[in-house]
Amino acid sequence: MTFITANWNPLGEAFYRKSELYEMCWNLRDGLRDCLVAAAPYGGPIALLREPVRRSPSSRPQLEIYSASGVSIASFPWKSGPVVHLGWTRHFSMGQEVVQSQVLEAKVFHSPYGTGVAIVTGSSRFIMATNIDDLKLRRLPEVPGLQGKPSCWVVLNQDRQTKVLLSTGSELYILDNTSCTAVSLPGLAPQGGSIVHMSVSFSYKYLAVLTDSGHLWTGPSHLQDKMSEVDTKKLTPPKQMVWCRRPKSQQPSVVLMWDRLLMVVGVCQDTIQFPTEDQCVLVGEMDGVRIISSTNQELLQEVPLVCQEIFKIASMAPGALLLEAHREYEKSSQKADEYLREIKEQSMLGEAVSQCIEAAGHEYDPNTQKSLMRAASFGKCFLTDFSPGQFVTTCRELRVLNSVRESSVGLPLTHTQFKQMTLQVLIDRLVYRQFYPLAIEMCRYLKIPDYQGVSRVLKHWASCKVQQKDLSDEAIARAMCAKVGDSPGVSYSDIAAKAYECGRTELAIKLLDFEARSGEQVPLLLKMKRSQLALSKAVESGDTDLVYTVVTYLKNEMNRGDFFMTLRNQPVALSLYRQFCKLQEQETLKDLYNQDDDHKELANYYVTASYREKRLESRLSLLQSAVDEYNKAKNEFSAKATEEEMRLLRFQRKLDDEKGAGLLELSLQATMEALLALGLYKQAEQLYRDFRVPDKRYWWLKLKSLAEKEEWDELEKFSKSKKSPIGYLAFVEVCMKSNNKYEAKKYVSKVTPEQRVKAHLAISDLDGAADAAIERKNDSEIATVLSRCSAADRLLIERLNRASTAKK
Amino acid sequence: MRGNPYSILRGGWKALGTQAIVWDEYLTGPFGLIAQYSLLKEHEVEKMFTLKSGKLPSADVKNIIFFVRPRLELMDIIAENVFSEDKMHSSRDFHILFVPRRSMLCEQRLKEQGVLASFVNIDEYILDLIPYDGDLLSMEYESAFRECYLENDQTSLYHTAKGLMTLQALYGTIPQIYGKGDCARHVANMMLRMKREFAGSQNQILPVFDTLLLLDRNIDLLTPLATQLTYEGLIDEIYGITNGYVKLPPEKFAQKKQGEASKDLPTESKKLQLNSAEELYAEIRDKNFNAVGAALSKKAKIISAAFEERHNAKTVGEIKQFVSQLPHMQAARSSLANHTSIAELIKDITTSEAFFENLTVEQEFMTGVDTDKVNTYIEDCIAQKDPLIKILRLMCMQSVCNNGLKQKVFEYYKREILQTYGYEHILTLNNLEKASLLKLQTSSRNNYPTIRKTLKLWMEDANEQNPNDISYVYSGYAPLSVRLTQVLARPGWRSIEEVLKLLPGPHFEERQQLPAGLHKKRQQGENRTTLVFFLGGVSYAEIAALRFLSQMEDSGMEYIIATTKLLNGTTWIKSLMDRPESQIS
């Protein structure tokens, strides 16, 4: 393992290492010569434009996009004008003004507001947009004396303000929204000469400036200080100059590239020189510099402190000892114990484990990662309360990083970059590159809640899938169902809407079928004019309001016949619509029943309607319709009852006309009652017979009516007219209710034996009751009589008691 | 379940400044259960009106908020209100809050009426399940049964499913769902569908309920028809409990306040709130009425003994302790006085011959005596023109207990009713038939006795004082719905498969997957909790029976009850009646 430090180069106190990331998969005939190259940070893809300056107006250069490992992702001919600069942004257009004046130079930058673009126009004016997603062009003030383009310039971010720092050779200016100020670099030696190159660090915090005398000045980008000044002893301007730093850098540096030389210039004035054979491109990252050549790609970075501590030759750092201990342990050597003891004596074992884990994160080679993690795991065994969180997380993250670093994926992310970029963004990137299975694997492996993980991937996959023109609707729908299934948070209606947008209505409908939320299906279906389907989906949802909504929509869309037919196939919708009609459109209700030949409901409808009618004639005609319908419905009883009702109405009308009896609206019973009260016995009798009123009820009615009017003779006559169907106790009780004991007595003798005691008691004839009870030898009756006796009835009580005991 | 899961101010209440609320009158009752006027007042509600057509009453407020159910006829009234308003004022803001949820149909209506744009806010106040008591939730959705079984309108079931989803969001996914009946099946289907819709976003809450049991009212039509014989049941039967309040005749209460007796208007009825917050009421509400007298007198002794304690209080400390208990004791005493009065009022009725005769007939029907003949008592009641609903209740009961009435009997009853109470009731009779409460006997086989015997619906010598079976709530009849619940817990429905097939609609079991780690680890002896949801209403006696089961030592099951509406035979039949416009009574 000693060779780990083989590619380490000392720079001041620190070390720099240049390690190979990929052998490029691409096959570039002419290397990177005459190409405009732009690579996105965080291991992003590389854009390459051949021969940006056209040889002839008809030649169309090809814009090619490769992954960081050189796998071709896309390629298309560049149809617009000559290209001056290539940078990574999202799609946008800068508008007419820019088109008219020529663009001399352009730079893409990152501001707190988003990704921005700055350009120099043919009229030597700077135009800037700080956020291309919300494009607002700003013309910066004129630079005094500037002709053509400046010798070099950079975009700076200071205090949430975006400024341009430019050099016209001897002069240095800062341009902001309102002014153009001349500035000077603090501490730059007077013999420095004019500025030929400038570079701002990844974080926009530091600035490097190179003069024509080969002096490199570095300092913070606010230009208040100087960090260092180094004489590179090179008089030709470099091709590229890029900062190389990392978070908590010990020894930041600037990388300069000439045709055959790469020079790393540390702030400490130390330099490292690498010869290069091929044309290269430098890509600044937050923790290093990527060097892309036509054959391979390397990462140049300062070795992280923790790695230095562990791997530095003869290091005694706890991590280094632990790694050594583990190595000895694997060799079954007792030295392992010695090393461990040494760490433990300093109580540094926890620290050692942490160091190994952290260092593993920074290492690119899986074997190195493994040996570090194994050492950490080994060390952990000797600790009792070491939280496993860091270990587990790092293991997981390393597996993820190793898999995206694969050449086929080509995302050479460092752990530091990964942390900065976040997992969410990484998944998004994979999704945009359409590495769906990998993204899903990763979400599952890292146990990301479905909502933010798997579902998001599937959603993207699905909306991409529906656009694949070569697949049949059926195949896509099937694939969709198999993959997406019931994954939470994936909205089939969104996917369907996408399919519909792409003109695939049939597919959209198929997809909507998978949508769990019917409420979501309905609006799209209506939009696609699939109203019948919308209706059945609405019904399925159980949301009656939704059903109503579709029904109302259909009602306006369709002709009445079709509308009714549609409803007929949807009983739930039909009954809801009936409810609606009951409250709002009575006439429609009738039509609905008619269409369905629902005679019974139709009859009920007529009955209901008859009660709203004031005029008797119309009422009767409605009732007649009801009778007809009841007959059609074979509901004999209701038909007859309604006929009866009509007969009663006619009778009432006649009597009202003749006698002013005020009978209309009364029930049959109430009518008879009224007639009896009026003394119209014959008419009451007629109703009783005509309507086949049960004897019992009629007798009760007449009995009460006569008693109320105190027509006792008439009552007696009535009682003798035939054997009472309600017995005679009723007579006794009704008379007593009118407080007529005399009349009541008349009926006591006629009462059946079972009710005799009750009858006697009703008229408060205790003796009679006692006689009856004793005669019937009925204990409970005797008891009833006893309970009514008071102390004064001593003799009676004795008699009853005797009878009671005698029986026993 | 204690505590109110709904906050009146949650959502919706965005209006700023002074407000006047215009209430859909139907909502005031249910809202009274969750928010007092004083609370609203704290939130700048200055005035409250009832929604009426015509002009809005004047009020010096910035905002007018309509609190309404999503019904078209109400939209028309609102439109009228808004139109008449606009002419005089223009600075007022209108808001509309739909309870329990927004309706596109209603918004469409407002649009057609040309007032939709006048509303600053259109929102919903999601109020599906209203906490009615510690163990009782009600949707207070009166027309649910009618809508489901007469009109085939399942709106209430949709709200039920939504309400259960809300409940699960608050109290965790209920792992097991059982059900019986078509509506139950429909609700369960919607719940499972909604669960898929919400999948992934569900809360990680340890489930409070182990089981949900959904029961259609129509699998047990008999129980609500019978006269309830528990204390609370009788209060409801006789005086009617609405939204937790009962109005009682004032005479019995007037004399209690001796000093102010003369001032009291004897015509104004006494309004009492009834819930388990009142200790005594919680104790006696579910007892058979015949056991209430003893309980009250025992309580009276305890209270007077407690008051006697003051004579024993010698030291300052003892007196201080006595005084500190005084408010509680006085509350107990006034509660005792109230319930003694109510019990007296009820006793007057239960000891009457009419009540006794009615009960006798009911019990005859339930035990299957002469259910296939015209019943003389019903006949007599018609002849005496007793209230129609009473007749209908008995008739329905006979029909249910006989698996339908013979044609001759059926038509005889119907004719009697039409002739005596008026032909317009033909519609009501049709409705009852449609709801299967009345029906023509089609097969000669009567299922009811089989069901009664298998489920032991009739228990001879039910112990009213110290019950050992749920049958005490009807003095002999064990409510079928509760028996099903009881059997489900032990030994399980498999044992009564045959009987379940005799009842309408499917029975089913569904399981809802719980997120890993939320499976309850049950302690030894810890009770399981079942939420029993009655679709179409539940009676107080059934609730009492379920509470009895919860309290039984060996049941191991605790029941929480939810329903669309609390009902009794009278309110239930009433909700099924059709009253043509000409007949207002």
TrEMBL record, chain A:
Q: Which UniProt keywords apply?
A: Endosome, Lysosome, Membrane, Protein transport, Transport
Residue ranges of domain Vps16 N-terminal in the record: 5-90, 91-392
Which terms under GO biological process does the entry name? endosomal transport; intracellular protein transport; vacuole fusion, non-autophagic
Compartments in which it is found? Late endosome membrane; Lysosome membrane
Q: What is its main location?
A: membrane
**Gene3D superfamilies hit by this protein:** Vps16, C-terminal region
Q: Which GO terms describe its cellular component?
A: CORVET complex; HOPS complex; late endosome membrane; lysosomal membrane
Matching InterPro entries, A to Z? VPS16, Vps16_C, Vps16_C_sf, Vps16_N
Q: Which GO terms describe its molecular function?
A: actin binding
Q: Where is the Vps16 C-terminal domain?
A: 490-794
Q: How does it sit in the membrane?
A: Peripheral membrane protein
Task: Quote the function comment for this protein.
Answer: Plays a role in vesicle-mediated protein trafficking to lysosomal compartments including the endocytic membrane transport and autophagic pathways. Believed to act as a core component of the putative HOPS and CORVET endosomal tethering complexes.
Subunit text: Core component of at least two putative endosomal tethering complexes, the homotypic fusion and vacuole protein sorting (HOPS) complex and the class C core vacuole/endosome tethering (CORVET) complex. Their common core is composed of the class C Vps proteins VPS11, VPS16, VPS18 and VPS33A, which in HOPS further associates with VPS39 and VPS41 and in CORVET with VPS8 and TGFBRAP1. Interacts with RAB5C. Interacts with STX17, MON1B. Associates with adapter protein complex 3 (AP-3) and clathrin:AP-3 complexes.
| UniProt family annotation | Belongs to the VPS16 family.
Q: What is this protein called?
A: Vacuolar protein sorting-associated protein 16 homolog
Automatic annotation (TrEMBL), chain B:
- Biological processes, Gene Ontology terms: protein transport; vesicle-mediated transport
Q: How does it sit in the membrane?
A: Peripheral membrane protein
Subcellular location, in the record's words? Cytoplasmic vesicle, Autophagosome; Cytoplasmic vesicle, Clathrin-coated vesicle; Early endosome; Late endosome membrane
Main localization is cytoplasm
Q: Which GO terms describe its cellular component?
A: autophagosome; clathrin-coated vesicle; early endosome; late endosome membrane; lysosomal membrane
> Which UniProt keywords are given for this protein, alphabetically ordered?
Cytoplasmic vesicle, Endosome, Lysosome, Membrane, Protein transport, Transport
Pfam families in the cross-refs: Sec1 (PF00995)
Q: Please give the function described in this protein's UniProt entry.
A: Plays a role in vesicle-mediated protein trafficking to lysosomal compartments including the endocytic membrane transport and autophagic pathways. Believed to act as a core component of the putative HOPS and CORVET endosomal tethering complexes which are proposed to be involved in the Rab5-to-Rab7 endosome conversion probably implicating MON1A/B, and via binding SNAREs and SNARE complexes to mediate tethering and docking events during SNARE-mediated membrane fusion.
Protein family according to the UniProt entry: Belongs to the STXBP/unc-18/SEC1 family.
Name of the protein in its database record = Vacuolar protein sorting-associated protein 33A
